[in-house]
Specification:
The complex is a heterotrimer of chains A (321), B (264) and C (465). Chain A is an alpha/beta fold. Chain A folds into two domains: 173 residues, Rossmann fold, CATH 3.40.50.620; 113 residues, 3-Layer(aba) Sandwich (Rossmann fold). Chain A contains ten helices and 17 strands. In chain B, helix 2 crosses helix 5. Chain C has 465 residues and is an all-alpha fold. Chain C has a domain of 85 residues. Classes of the chains: A alpha/beta (321), B alpha/beta (264), C mainly alpha (465). At the B-C interface, helix 5 and helix 6 of B face helix 4, helix 6, helix 12 and helix 14 of C. Bound molecules: flavin-adenine dinucleotide (FAD). Flavin-adenine dinucleotide sits at the interface of chains A and C.
Chain lengths: 321, 264, 465
């Protein structure tokens, strides 16, 4: 068993950027894995992705021609199993994506391979693979090993590793995916309905206010601020309960989930469990609170211990028009 | 007609917790337990199907865990699940999601439900593996991260939407019985009524052991697992990076963060 | 019907029979030493002690008892808890002298505003840990004397924190001024305790002028000069400064920068003519702000109530001086958020509310009606059974809601609602006691806290939680 197999991902005719990040992860531990880095792309027309996947450090790109046009968990499971049988890698890297989640655990369970999901680090310790992932709501790092497993499947988190820019010259080979009976059928893609006046679930950038605003008259300046910085305005429940903002802006357990949010600025919000239920998954949370003990700081990526009025006015003044 | 819903008692830590002396987990005194958030949604989805079918459907919740898990099962019973199954004995200790899935699959084989719902993941360790591994042990069709479901009990097909990254959804048709992992937001979970809570006290919780389900000692615990926790530790840098300086300096940084997000 | 406990020992008996840790914690402050012992037995396990030391609202007496356990992890939680008594914090400091926990405990103690002055004094001059010092310099409860000592240590990383800390007095700030960076100097100029002499000159940088323009203690000639500053942000700060003379506002209301006009439109002392002018502004934020300003004349509001921008109409609906006919007209606005603005007004006539409720489906509007003291019992009767929990909760927030309706809430599936309704003055103690076995621990904590206080302080009946 040696080498690393990377399964690239594509959707709607585009390679998903995480594929190149995984290649960088693989190349990073290639020396320890003492074997080649093989990248496989499973598609109806796999060739068109071959060039993009040919980056420095990759030894082989396998274009796996599959009869199935869109993702199907059974087809992918069977195909990756066939690739593993052919290549005998010690590590199989998959993106920790919604599609991988639909077949990676099944693949590992069926063939008895090692499995770690949502890892953000892999390394070899004295020849044995160790994956690091988050535990207890990401508050701890958890090192996982795989006693007795010569092949380990790892689904690896996106946005952890920088892709490699330099091109390489791997051999490009072809393979046919094994046929699988269809138990499911992809019908179509649907894009989340945008528009509507207030769209907390669809918004990528939310600026939320909580009871720290004090009174209704103060809400206005934050509405204006949100518009100035181009964010959707959200709020905690007490603000919606008071009728200061519509219920459609409330984030949390009994409100909306900031499902597509990438940047969430929480101003004057303490970080109750119920509020966090709607936003704690957001990757970039900035918390502004006068109380350094506020729970919101535990889940924030960036914290500002300060007064929301001062910070808000400062932001208003500094934000480039 | 029967729907099996898998649930988990999750654990959270507050600040200032201690790690167990073997370094492989948190000292249990510091853990706060609750029902996994996702499971409220999968139970609700089952309840909606039951109610739409006019009560012909039995909803059974199943969990793997020690006696303390009964508390979460009672919550599910209070919301209207008909009965509960809990599997445990000491051999289960040290099981990873795959070993848990093997146990659940054994329960499912006995129960022969028409559908099996699991949460996409659990809020404590976010494995996102148990449901789909269960499908594998059962040999059933499966779909992960389901955000919309159209299913009439007894029908051979279900239509559903899977929530992909970046606000895209995929519509899929799937043969049944199937295992679906249910995503947050698929419905609005109900709260248990006080009456429901009282009635739940009288509903049965069957307690089974792996061996009673026909599982061997090597099927569960560390022997039946595909991974093992070697060490847990608190990351050197806490999550939040405190932005220091005067408000003007702090905001200068904040502006950078916003612009980075906007790709300026 | 359950009988309400008649005295504290009755309550203690209930809590101990049920082995209810939350009930016990809530009762603890109100009972005698012997009774306390009984209650303390209920949290004998370490996990419960840890839980109480972390839980919001745990009474000070319970925290003091937890201190006696001498458990390092419990101590760390006590050092951060908002209810830990100053004497206990002092003892924690003494404990921190020796243990391995020293640094962690101290970092928490310095940041706790309740940590006594004398404790902070003891170590500010000698502490070596920068994080501990930072926590101290950011502590808004610290005495100026302590902050002064910290300033004198001349550690660069502390100066910013001291300049930002509102507890710093002018002596501290004067000391900082000597070696201040541009940014720190600006912060000092904006500080409410800024030394008088520093406020008299016009600084060179935009940031410093902006900070000075926002300081209510800035002398009026300085503010006058800053109100015509080249940079809009300085003018905006002057426009928002309550000390800026009314005479300057008219000019500011014609400022070329929207940001300045928006700030001036908010002023409660805005001349009526300036308000009328701003009401025609092209910028709808300016119009929104004037529409909300109580000094704006009724005829101007009438025009703003026709504005094409919904938020401007909403602002009129939220204006405390909005004339009754206009309120009635806005009650029929096509936009629900404007109608909600009316529904939340304390002065909407019952008749108008009645018409609003008919056929209304928006949860925002219905919630406004439900919490409105003018809502009729008849309407509340319907709303308390509404399927939307937000609407039901609004009934709890209605001070006029009668007991019979509130009793419905005692069965509400939302624990939050049961916990909230407990505080309503129209409920009777029999009603409240019904929740003493509530499945939700926070609700039980509230129930026992209420009855503990009720029976522990018999002299002030009628006080609610
Ligand atoms: C069943 C249930 C469901 C719930 N659902 C939700 C929900 O969906 N969404 C939700 O939000 N809540 C929900 N809640 C309510 C929740 O428990 C909290 O009460 C609420 O989130 C608190 O809101 P907050 O953070 O704005 O207020 P607080 O907790 O009062 O926090 C205000 C914060 O502002 C800070 N602050 C004050 N002044 C300033 C200042 N000038 N500058 C900077 N900071 C300042 C304070 O330090 C404090 O941390 C729910 C509760 C229950 C029981």
């Amino acid at each position: 068993m040696s080498g690393i197999l990377v399964i690239a991902e594509h959707r709607m005719d585009e390679l998903r950027p995480v594929s190149l990040e995984l290649i960088a992860v693989a190349v990073g531990v290639k020396a320890q894995a003492s074997g080649p880095v093989t990248v496989a792309i499973i598609a109806n027309d796999p060739q068109k992705y071959a060039q993009a996947l040919s980056v420095q450090g990759v030894d082989e790109v396998i274009c796996v021609k599959s009869a199935v046009v869109e993702f199907d968990p059974d087809a992918y499971e069977a195909t990756v199993a066939a690739l593993i049988a052919a290549k005998n890698p010690s590590l199989v890297l998959l993106p920790h994506s919604v599609n991988s989640l639909a077949y990676a655990p099944a693949l590992a369970a069926k063939t008895g391979l090692g499995l770690a999901t949502d890892a953000f680090k892999v390394e070899f310790d004295a020849g044995a693979l160790v994956a690091t992932r988050g535990g207890y709501g990401q508050k701890l790092n958890v090192e996982v090993d795989f006693p007795g497993k010569s092949t380990v499947v790892v689904t690896f988190r996106a946005n952890v590793c920088k892709p490699i820019d330099a091109a390489g010259s791997p051999t490009v080979t072809q393979m046919d995916a094994p046929a699988t009976p269809a138990r499911g059928q992809h019908k179509k893609y649907i894009e989340a309905a945008g528009g509507g006046d207030v769209d907390i679930p669809g918004s990528e950038f939310i600026l939320s206010i909580g009871r720290g605003v004090g009174e209704e008259d103060n809400v206005e300046q934050f509405r204006e601020l949100a518009q100035t910085v181009g964010a959707e305005l959200g709020c905690s429940r007490p603000i919606a309960d008071a009728g200061w903002l519509p219920k459609s802006r409330q984030v949390g357990q009994s409100g909306k989930t900031a499902a597509n949010c990438k940047l969430y600025i929480a101003m004057g919000i303490s970080g109750s469990v119920q509020h966090m239920a709607g936003m704690k998954h957001v990757e970039n949370i900035v918390a502004v609170n006068t109380d350094p003990k506020a729970s919101i700081f535990h889940i924030a990526r960036y914290g500002i211990v300060g007064d929301i009025f001062e910070i808000g006015e400062e932001l208003r003044n500094q934000f480039p028009a | 007609m029967k729907i099996l819903v898998t649930v988990k008692q999750v654990a959270a830590v507050d600040d200032d917790f201690e790690i167990r002396t073997d370094g492989r987990d948190v000292d249990p005194d510091f853990l706060i337990h609750d029902l996994n958030e996702w499971d409220n949604f999968s139970l609700e989805e089952a309840m909606k199907i039951k109610e739409a079918a006019g009560g012909e459907v039995e909803v059974v919740v199943v969990s793997v865990g020690p006696e303390s898990v009964d508390e979460e099962l009672r919550k599910c019973l209070a919301k209207g699940a008909d009965r509960a199954i809990r599997v445990w004995d000491d051999s289960v200790e040290g099981s990873d999601p795959i070993a848990i899935a093997r146990i659940i699959a054994a329960v499912a084989k006995n129960e022969a439900p028409d559908m099996l719902f699991a949460g996409v993941q659990a809020s404590d360790h976010s494995y996102a593996a148990t449901g789909i591994a269960t499908a594998s042990f059962l040999g059933w069709p499966h779909a992960a991260v389901v955000s919309l479901l159209n299913y009439t009990p007894g029908s051979k097909m279900a239509t559903l939407q899977r929530e992909l990254e970046g606000g895209t959804y995929a519509e899929v048709e799937l043969e049944c019985p199937a295992v679906l992992t249910i995503q947050l937001g698929i419905n609005v979970p109900r709260y248990a009524s006080l009456r429901g809570i009282k009635q739940a006290a009288a509903k049965p919780i069957d307690v089974l052991t792996p061996s009673a389900l026909g599982l061997a000692a090597t099927d569960v615990g560390e022997a039946g697992s595909l991974s093992r926790v070697r060490r847990m530790y608190v990351p050197a840098k806490g999550q939040a990076e405190l932005i220091e300086g005067t408000p003007a300096e702090q905001v200068a940084r904040l502006v950078k963060i916003i612009q980075e997000f906007k790709g300026v | 019907m359950m009988t309400v406990p008649k005295d504290l020992s009755d309550l203690v008996r209930h809590a101990t029979e049920k082995k209810d840790v939350y009930a016990a914690a809530a009762l603890h402050p109100w009972v005698n030493t012997a009774q306390r012992r009984l209650l303390e037995d209920l949290w004998g396990e370490r996990r419960q002690a840890l839980l109480l030391a972390q839980m919001e609202g745990t009474p000070a007496t319970v925290l003091e008892q937890l201190f006696a356990l001498n458990d390092a992890s419990v101590d760390a939680r006590l050092a951060r808890h908002g209810n830990t008594a100053p004497v206990v914090l002092e003892k924690l400091f003494q404990r921190s002298q020796a243990g391995a926990q020293r640094q962690r405990l101290r970092r928490y103690l310095v940041a706790n505003p309740a940590t006594p002055h004398k404790v902070l004094l003891q170590w500010v001059e000698t502490e070596q840990d920068l994080d501990v010092l930072k926590g101290l310099c950011a502590n808004s409860g610290a005495e100026p004397e302590v902050l002064g000592l910290a300033a004198q240590r001349g550690i660069a990383a502390l100066q910013t924190l001291l300049a930002v800390n509102l507890a710093s007095n002018s002596a501290v700030l004067q000391h900082l001024w000597a070696g201040a960076t541009e940014g720190i100097a600006a912060q000092i100029l904006g500080h409410p305790q800024c030394p008088e002499v520093l406020l008299e000159a016009i600084p060179n940088t935009v940031l410093q002028r902006r900070k000075l323009a926002g300081n209510v203690r800035a002398p009026s000639p300085v503010l006058q000069a800053l109100s015509t500053d080249q940079h809009w942000s300085v003018r905006r700060a002057a426009a928002g400064n309550a000390a800026t003379a009314v005479a300057l506002l008219t000019a500011l209301s014609r400022d070329e920068a929207e940001a300045v006009r928006r700030a001036v439109a908010m002023r409660p002392d805005l001349p009526v003519t300036a308000a009328a002018w701003l009401a025609q502004d092209d910028d709808d934020w300016v119009r929104q702000v004037v529409a909300r300003n109580a000094i704006t004349a009724p005829e101007v509001l009438e025009r703003l109530a026709q504005d094409a921008v919904m938020e401007v109409r909403r602002a009129v609906a939220r204006n405390p001086a909005c004339p009754a006919p206009l309120v009635a007209a806005l009650a029929k606005d096509e936009n629900e958020w404007v109608r909600a603005g009316v529904a939340y007004r304390a002065d909407v006539p019952a008749q108008v509310l009645y018409q609003m409720e008919a056929g209304e489906t928006s949860a925002d509007v219905l919630s406004g009606i439900a919490q409105n003291a003018a809502a009729s019992q008849h309407m509340l009767q319907r709303l308390v059974q509404h399927e939307n929990p937000d609407v039901r909760r609004a009934v709890i927030l209605n001070k006029m809601a009668p007991r019979a309706l509130l009793q419905n809430i005692l069965q509400d599936p939302y624990a939050l609602h049961r916990g909230m309704v407990l505080r309503h003055p129209h409920l009777h103690d029999e009603d409240r006691w019904q929740l003493h076995q509530d499945p939700d621990p926070r609700v039980r904590f509230a129930v026992y806290g209420y009855f503990g206080r009720r029976l522990g302080m018999p002299k002030t009946p009628g006080t609610i939680i």
